[in-house]
Write a structure and sequence with these properties.
The chain is built from 22 helices and 14 strands. It is of the alpha/beta class. Strands 7, 8, 9, 10, 11, 12, 13 and 14 form an eight-stranded mixed sheet that branches. The protein has a four-stranded antiparallel sheet with strand order 4-5-3-6. About 45% of the residues lie in helices and about 10% in strands. It is globular and about 75 Å long. The protein folds into three domains: about 150 residues, NusB-like (N-utilizing Substance Protein B Homolog, Chain A, Orthogonal Bundle); about 50 residues, no CATH class; about 220 residues, Vaccinia Virus protein VP39 (Rossmann fold, 3-Layer(aba) Sandwich). Strand 7, helix 15 and strand 8 form a beta-alpha-beta unit.
Length: about 550
């Protein structure tokens, strides 16, 4: 985050964002952030004329009262607020935001601004909420949720973006007037002025605990739930990515990377698009993935291959996992049969389908949800057309992956289990995930993950290969699942995944840890935190 400079001067008392111009007391008298302070406005001389704006901390502050400002917020901030409220109701930012940008016809730099505003405010509210609480003189639990979202958007503009202070305050108050009401706009004005009085470093000194261990401090400073930070620390040690001497440094780098905007990575599905085509469309070839490219800016949907479904937005780590499964030798006679056990929403299935067709194999993409099955079908539409021309079969179907091992024992030569998980490795792309997941989720997910992996092994022919993947480094979802399943069986063995994880130059991707599994890291590889275990079913293929 880029710290904002100190700005504004009203409400400077320690007790809150001020009542009137006195700077004493809380940020308003409403119990829920409604109908609060209407003061902290402009200054007039004896003749009633507006005085020049005062300068504080090297920047100008707005001299307008909330009632004097525009009554409508700009489309970008309104769109950001709309997405914030949808996410609060259970939506996903990465799905809701593109829809809102299309509906409001927000493009280019304005779309980038809106995206950063939404993702940053959601990611960082673990830091912004204590800041808001101090500035408001009350716990955030006593502020209406919709007003709190407005304040989070404002706090991110002040403390996490390069928005001029007066613009951040004025536009946030205008937004509050439009979506929260006139009374709430006075409260928002007071709190925003109070926040603007300090820069990011000063607020960190105020709200980050001075005592306690590193995990406790990072939880606030880098806006992660405490349990997530502790789990990531254990994962770094458990996967061999850190030692007792280096784990604090690695943990700090990891949670910091979780708060960085993820690059827009594209995949050129072999036989349908090429990296060269993506480069001609303005992308840059990925040094990490042989089928990947990085879009430095702009709308991915404007890339012809993406618009036509021959390429897609996909993290390079996910690309490497699918490529690794396709690269492992198997002993097979005749065409191979591949299975994506948990295919929705279809990203890895799209790449697997292209790789299967290139290898002369058939693919079954299975998904338990009918809605997500339709998403897979849409993603695989170019591959489905291509398969018809090549005389190959690509099947998209709805079913419970836990049943396939019993229903189709020994049918498939390559099976991907992209297991449902907490998503702790993809916090850059899924900003709400860190706040929605709890340690209690691990028990149910762990049972499901073990059942899916066992079913996949049962569905695999002797000599075939299973890839178990998660977008989480949590040991309970990765190493422990693989260990527990393989310990109970004598028909499967772990194979070293590292030689099959190859970069764009055909060289093994450097992976910390002893193997045989692979764990990618946002702060090391610039990818999501993808885990991969490769398992071979015992015996030759018949």
């Amino acid at each position: 985050m880029s710290p904002a400079r100190d700005d504004g001067q009203h409400g400077a008392g320690r007790g809150g964002a001020g009542r009137g111009d006195s700077g004493r007391g809380g940020a308003g008298r409403g119990d829920s952030g409604r109908g609060g302070n209407q003061g902290a406005g402009g200054r007039r001389n004896a003749q009633g004329r507006q005085r020049p704006e005062r300068v504080h901390g090297g920047q100008q502050r707005s001299a307008q009262r909330p009632s004097e400002r525009g009554r409508t917020s700009d489309p970008q901030r309104l769109a950001a607020y709309t997405v914030m409220r949808a996410v609060a109701a259970g939506a996903y930012a990465n799905l809701e935001l593109p829809r809102e940008l299309r509906d409001k016809q927000i493009r280019g730099r304005d779309a980038a601004f809106t995206t950063e505003l939404v993702y940053g405010a959601i990611r960082m509210h673990g830091l912004y909420d204590p800041v808001i609480a101090v500035a408001a003189g009350r716990p955030v639990a006593k502020i209406d949720a919709n007003v709190l979202d407005t304040l989070r958007l404002g706090a991110h503009q002040l403390l996490g973006m390069r928005v001029p202070t007066h613009a951040a305050v004025d536009e946030t108050v205008a937004l509050a007037r439009k979506v929260n009401g006139a009374g709430a706009s006075g409260f928002v004005n007071a709190v925003m002025r109070r926040i603007s009085e300090r820069d990011l470093d000063a607020w960190l000194a105020e709200v980050v605990p001075a005592e306690g261990d590193l995990v406790t401090r990072l939880s606030v400073e880098q806006s992660h739930p405490d349990w997530v930070v502790r789990a990531l620390r254990a994962a770094l040690l458990g996967h061999g990515a850190a030692t007792a001497e280096t784990v604090d440094e690695q943990l700090t780098a990891l949670v910091t990377a979780d708060n960085a905007a993820a690059k827009v990575s594209l995949v050129a599905r072999p036989g349908q698009a090429s990296v060269d085509e993506l480069v001609e469309s303005g992308a840059e070839a990925s040094p990490l993935s042989p089928v990947g490219a990085v879009l430095p800016g702009g709308d991915p949907g404007a890339v012809p291959a993406v618009r036509e479904g021959r390429a897609a937005v996909q993290d390079e780590g996910s690309q490497l996992l699918a490529l690794a499964l396709a690269a492992v030798p198997v002993e097979a006679e005749g065409p191979e049969r591949w299975l994506d056990l948990c295919a929705g929403p279809g990203g890895k299935a799209g790449l697997l389908a292209a790789l299967a067709l290139r290898a002369g194999a058939d693919l079954t993409a299975n998904e338990v949800s009918e809605h997500r099955t339709e998403l897979v079908r849409q993603t695989l539409r170019p591959a489905l057309l291509q398969a018809g021309h090549l005389g190959r079969t690509i099947e998209v179907r709805t079913g419970d992956g836990r049943d396939i091992g019993a229903d189709e024992p020994g049918r498939y030569t390559r099976v991907l289990v992209d297991a449902p998980c907490t998503g702790l490795g993809a916090l850059r792309r899924r900003p709400e995930a860190r706040w929605r997941r709890t340690p209690a989720d691990l028990a149910d997910l762990g049972a499901l993950q073990r059942d899916l992996l066992s079913s996949a092994i049962d569905a695999t022919a002797p000599g075939g290969v299973v890839a178990y993947a998660t977008c989480s480094p949590h040991l309970a979802e990765t190493q422990f699942v693989v260990r527990d399943v393989t310990k109970r069986r004598d028909d499967v063995e772990l194979i070293d995944a590292r030689p099959f994880l190859l970069d764009a130059q055909g060289q093994p991707v450097p992976v910390p840890g002893p193997g045989p599994t692979v764990q990618l890291w946002p702060h090391v590889h610039g990818t999501d935190g993808m885990f991969l275990a490769l398992l071979r079913k015992s015996g030759p293929l018949g």
